[in-house]
What we know:
Phage tail protein beta-alpha-beta fold, Jelly Rolls
Amino acid sequence: MEQEIWKLVLEYLAAKERGEWKEAANLEERLQDWISRDPLHRQELDQAIWLWESTAVVPQSDAWKSGFAAIQLPVPYEKAQKKTTFKIWLGAAAAVVAAISILIIFNKNRTVLREVVQTTWTTKTSAPGKITNIILPDSTEILLNAGSSISFPNHFRQASMRTVKLVGEAYFKVKRDPNHPFIVQSSNIQTLVLGTSFNISAWGKSSPQVTVLTGKVAVSRDSAGRQSAAIYLLPNQKAGLDAKSGLLYREKLEDARSAIGWTEGKMIFDQTPMEEVFKVIERRYGVQVIADRSFKDCKLSAKFSNIDIKEVLQTIQMTLDIHYTINKQTIYIKGGKCS
């Protein structure tokens, strides 16, 4: 029955690609019935669509339908130029089927796998005041911001889905490998990529954000194990999670590189709440900031480039009329008012 479902998925995607809207609508109705049976089906469909858009090439005829049943051990096929040939498209379809098969196996055995994975993950942490460069076994490069951590399974090189877990902020340069999608789990969002560069900021209670510099990623919301429909990001686009509605949103940016200013020691604040500014300062300089009042309604717009912490505090002093003292690694803030 599972093979029939995924054949239906491929028929639906192929019909949409060819512009056969009536057939696509009929197939979509059948898929909606399948999705309604289990919340995990929505996640599986989103990942199938993502893989399709990254690999699939559609044939003019329906000859692939009979060939589909012959796929026993499919080998994923890297994306090529658009050519309407059966051989190329069948390889692309096989890539989708291979990845989906992995997901089905994961779902069937998720309890057992979870127990194994929990004992075989490696975690790398970047200390306060330090940015750490990490090279994963697949040659993916990660710049880990101060106070952040990244975890990945010890069998990462052999894994069919390259999955990492992020707490904090990191800039990724993912090694392209269409056969092994790269997944970042951070806060309550999931980011799926094939090969690109992007930044993820997921600090504690703050709204997580994903910013794309090159390539394309799919971002979905993960809530209690249920995935929302994915939104897709291209270069100079950002996705975030609205704190009030709990929904994902997408924004255009003038220059996505501003999101990775921290990799060069920069701090960029644009109407940033002061409580968040203090957290950034703590991580950047490895200090603790203690204020004698709440700065809940205060915001700061400023740019700092690799300067001493005293210069940063002097700017805040002039902007918010604060008084500060430094005692070893602790900064005490007194007074202050919002402009």
